[in-house]
Amino acid sequence: MSASLNAKIAEVFDEPGCDVNQAKSAKERKKGCTKQLTPGAAAGGCAFDGAKIALQPIVDVAHLVHGPIACEGNSWDNRHSASSGPQTYRTGFTTDINELDVIYGAEKRLLKSIREVIERQDPAAVFVYQTCVTGMIGDDIEAVCRRAAERFGKPVIPVNAPGFAGPKNLGNKLGAEALLDHVIGTVEPEVTTPTDINIIGEYNLSGELWQVKPLLDALGVRVLSCISGDGRYRDIAGAHRARANMMVCSKSMINVATRMQQRWGIPYFEGSFYGISDMSTTLREIARLLVARGAPADLADRAEALIAAEEARAWERIRAYRERLSGKKVLLITGGVKSWSVVSALQEAGLEVVGTSVKKSTREDKEKIRELMGDGADAHMIDDLSPREMYAMLKDAKADIMLSGGRSQFVALKARMPWMDINQERHHAFAGYEGMVTMIAEIDKALFNPVWQQVRTPAPWETQAALLGEAV
């Protein structure tokens, strides 16, 4: 691992936004909050995967993977991060190095690939991702990117996050560091207002940002940049002129929020777009921060008026669902911010959360779960549930429905229990007041689908065998 990468990882670990980390000694703080996995054991994704997930939703940028072709995944409909315009991000670009490149180095191939991408696509910028193989053979992507930017007149951004550096969450932060080092603060926005905000750690999955933006528009709050869902390179480059930052997925890009506070004095808060009460709290906090930073004083009053109208409308629309869903039990297998933010939304729908996965959650996420679930919350926090244990929990009817990612759906189907996708591959947007109604409607459809009654009914030959057994 190169000295520059080691230094960057140490900088990422020295995170001022983590209260627990800051309580440690300087020596202990540099070790980081979690033990890093060894190369090849980064379960749930490697650092390269995390960096690309965090940055690929920037839609007008060409994302070029410097490594073997197997490192480039399917970019088309990647994680369902939607774009309101450019589609450049949906095309996969890779240098596709071979054995000779491993022996002689692949820097010339990288420079040639950057030129080809710029000539064919004319993107706003090119992001170059280091991978394990090119990192181990010593390709200096930062030097190549500097040379390419000078030669071709386009921003070329090195993302030094090879997979062997650690797990996916570390890669999220290393991708964010690339923005801090090479993008944010490099362009002045054409227009600024007293109500400009950045939304950090929001990926516009299935268009969720578009369910929240109309609420902000109604208040006169402008999203200067979203990092990174439906993001534009120039907007992110001028993000340092915002008046406040909102942190959505706190542990994926917390370093962006804290570094921007240090460098440009931009305050930030952590909020959630899931659930009625959490959405209202987020709007209030945005208004409070902006007023403190010079926005019109009546912004808070206008926010309260909007919240009252939207809450009344949302509660009325889910009233019938609440009566049907009251007392139904949910097993939530997800992680990170959703391990607590979705819990709040489910409780508002009258559902009981019998377990929530905290495998990828931070200490702060777990504290929020305890606040939401009260006494006995620890018993409902599942650190690591094997498929066999998951199946047993569903088969014993400790839950009426499971909400998880696609990889767990077959466990629920085998147990003949309803399942709904809650992770990034889903096709429905669940953010904001409108998203809350959509989420509850989808849960209702899944729970009361008549197919479950049919698949649980014994087959005719099973019934006959049972009758014959009784007769004997």
UniProtKB/TrEMBL annotation:
Keywords: Nitrogen fixation. Pathway: Cofactor biosynthesis; Fe-Mo cofactor biosynthesis. Pfam families: Oxidored_nitro (PF00148). InterPro entries: Nase/OxRdtase_comp1, Nase_comp1_CS, NifE, NifE-like. Signal peptide: none annotated. This protein may play a role in the biosynthesis of the prosthetic group of nitrogenase (FeMo cofactor). This is Nitrogenase iron-molybdenum cofactor biosynthesis protein NifE. It comes from Pelomonas caseinilytica.
